Amino acid sequence: MMLFERGSLKVRTLKENDKYLLAKWLSDPLVLEFYEGRDNPFTVQKVMDKFFPLEADEVKCIIEFEHKAIGYIQFYQLDDETKNVYGYGDEITYGTDQFIGEVDHWNKGIGTLLVTSMVQFLLDHKKAYRVVMDPQVRNERAIRCYEKCGFKKVKLLPKRELHEGIYQDCWLIEYGV
């Protein structure tokens, strides 16, 4: 099912056949440097275990650009426990995670187009009050992209994510209305 389209960018829900694309992308060391870890490559079976069956609280999607699947994005409404950790109230807050798996599509503005389009979709169709992400502090390229899209650093989350055997600090960043 198509969620939205903006120019040459399309975001559609995940299909079972996408498991082969995800396994390809999630076994590329360049992609794994910031997403999942180079010590954690994915097989098709591992993709099936992690991404399927689809869960009601996460919407998992494939990113297409110029009719070619190039990446993955998911979004979810934050639960009360996570909102408490972040210091948020009852407002509708969504989180997203994404990566462009086709590395030849990096540094071409597609990430900026994707993030701004997803934020607009969440504001318009899910009535989000804010959208948040928690990239690793060392992922400077992604953070620059998110800041171009209007996200602001809110809080440092020390030792938030286990990545390649080391707990990494992350930034809580938000886009608020």
UniProtKB/TrEMBL annotation:
Keyword annotations: Antibiotic resistance, Transferase
Pfam families hit by this protein: Acetyltransf_8
GO terms of molecular function: N-acyltransferase activity
Protein name: N-acetyltransferase
Record-annotated N-acetyltransferase domain positions: 9-173
GO biological process: response to antibiotic
